[in-house]
Amino acid sequence: MDNAYATDLESKNIYKHPGIIKIFAKIFSYVFHPLFIPLYVAWYLVFIHHSYFTGFGEKAKTWVMLQMTLNMIFFPAVTVLLLKGVGFIDSIFLKKQKDRIIPYMAAGIFFFWMYLVFRNQAEIPQILTAFTFGVFLASSAALIANIYFKISMHAIGCGGMLGLLIVVLNTHPSPPFTLPLMIAIFITGIVCTSRLIVSDHTSKDIYLGLLLGFFCQFISAAFLL
Known about the structure:
single chain, mainly alpha, globular
């Protein structure tokens, strides 16, 4: 056990958080589950941003969101439930590194499929296509990182959200320019703090997850935008 990990565990054992704090931490962990964050980002791009989907009708926007929901949430979640049902993983919460291997691989397939679908629909704004590819890159990198330590999936999701919003701010800003980014930073702080409170993640797992999700969005944007 390395010193950083031992120090984090020791600090958790010394300082006991009040029950109400743990309850809120669990709520934030569920609301901003890493599978949900891509849907929140897509919702912002489709319905809130003033420019990207201006030519789309309500049915077309709903169809985009439905595709995101199916490929980025439903199919990965069903995969985890099936793996639990057949005994390939110990818990649907993926508490062990070995439990995360197949879900990472399966999710990566669905994320890459979503990217291919959007790439072949010329009417889809490139920012959403780049975002889905960035999510795929992050899940692939997380699969490799999982060999060495249990990187935080929540932090990866929040890092991807921050990276995407900075890309949007630099390439296609829309008033109010910095408000979405400020909200994302606030959410990231709450979620990452929550994971430190109610999970066995160390600060290393959190910080590296944030960096991984963040830079994968920049890499994707550099190639596709």
